[in-house]
Amino acid sequence: MDKMVFLMQIDGQRIPIDYSLDRLEPLLNPTVFFRINRKFIIQMKSIASMSSYSRNRMKLTLKPCPDGLLDTLVSIEKAASFREWLDQ
């Protein structure tokens, strides 16, 4: 069974969509959106703060907070390309 995918707007409104993140990712502008882990594709302006978490990982606080999560982690596999994306 597929899990439900939502777009979350800056105002916090959640909109259900009929795409998996794997299908949605190539449709988005890669200079604006980045897939930080298996659960989240984010927009740069949604990052409220970030800090180092461990070795090469980053911890992000997003606005609005998705699903009440205070912090979201960038996966180890995505950390280097995430830093490059931030520097563009």
Describe what you observe in this structure:
The chain is built from two helices and seven strands. The chain is of the alpha+beta class and 88 residues long. The chain has one domain. The strands form three sheets. It has a three-stranded antiparallel beta sheet.
Overview in brief:
The chain has 88 residues and is α+β, with helices and mostly antiparallel strands. The chain has helices at residues 21-24, 76-87; strands spanning 5-8, 14-17, 33-35, 41-43, 47-54, 57-62, 72-74. The termini are far apart.
Entry keywords:
88 residues, alpha+beta, 2 helices, 18% helix
Alpha-carbon distance between the termini? 37 Å
Q: Helix proportion of residues, in percent?
A: 10-25%
**DSSP strand (E) fraction?**
35-45%
The outline comes out as: globular
Strand tally is 7
Q: Helix and strand string, N-terminal first?
A: EEHEEEEEH
Q: What's the story with the biggest beta sheet?
A: 3 strands, antiparallel
Query: Helix segment count?
Result: 2
Mean of residue pLDDT? 90
Poorly predicted regions are none
Total count of domains: 1
Describe the strand arrangement of the main beta sheet, using strand numbers.
Answer: 5-6-7
Structural class, judged by helices and strands? alpha+beta
Q: What Rg, in angstroms, do the CA atoms define?
A: 13 Å
